[in-house]
Amino acid sequence: MAYADALRFSSEVNQLKNLMDNTAAKSTELLTLTLTTNATAEAYLQMPSVIGSQQYWLQIRNDSAKTWIEGGFGTRLTEGTDLRVYLPEEASANGYYVGGYGALHFECYFEADVLWIRLESSG
After folding, report:
1. Digit-coded pLDDT (tens) for 12-63
2. Distance between alpha carbon 92 and the CA centroid of its chain, in Å?
3. What is the pTM of this model?
């Protein structure tokens, strides 16, 4: 039974990593488009309501040198998770998405010469 639970959890973690990779790819696409055109860009990405039987979350964050997407299971966002995907573009970032609440909405724009990217639920 423990082996089956470990396999299921491993599969769920891989599914979460794939969602994070897709989110990072779409974020990078919008950042590049915004940098190239100097225009606001937005997009929606359809997300599953749960992974396996677990609720999940994604959030986008940055520090002075990097921008990343992190994710985890549950409904409570936590800092310092080991599941991170770094974006190639440096940007100021904010927002989060909790699974089960509509599509993931991205918005990328310049504000006061600072490149911003924001994630939120469309629901």
Report:
1. 999 999 999 999 999 999 999 999 999 999 999 999 999 988 899 999 999 9
2. 14
3. 0.86
Cβ contact 105:120 at 8 Å: yes
- Beta-bridged to residue 58, according to DSSP, are 71, 97
Q: Using CA atoms, how far apart are residues 88 and 68, in angstroms rounded to an integer?
A: 9
Distance CA 19, CA 2 (A): 26
Whole-number average pLDDT of the chain: 89
Contacts of 23 (CB under 8 A, 6+ apart): 45, 58, 69, 85, 104, 119
**Contact call for residues 48 and 98 (beta carbons, < 8 A):** no
**Cα separation, 53 vs 74, whole angstroms:** 10
CA distance 65 to 67: 7
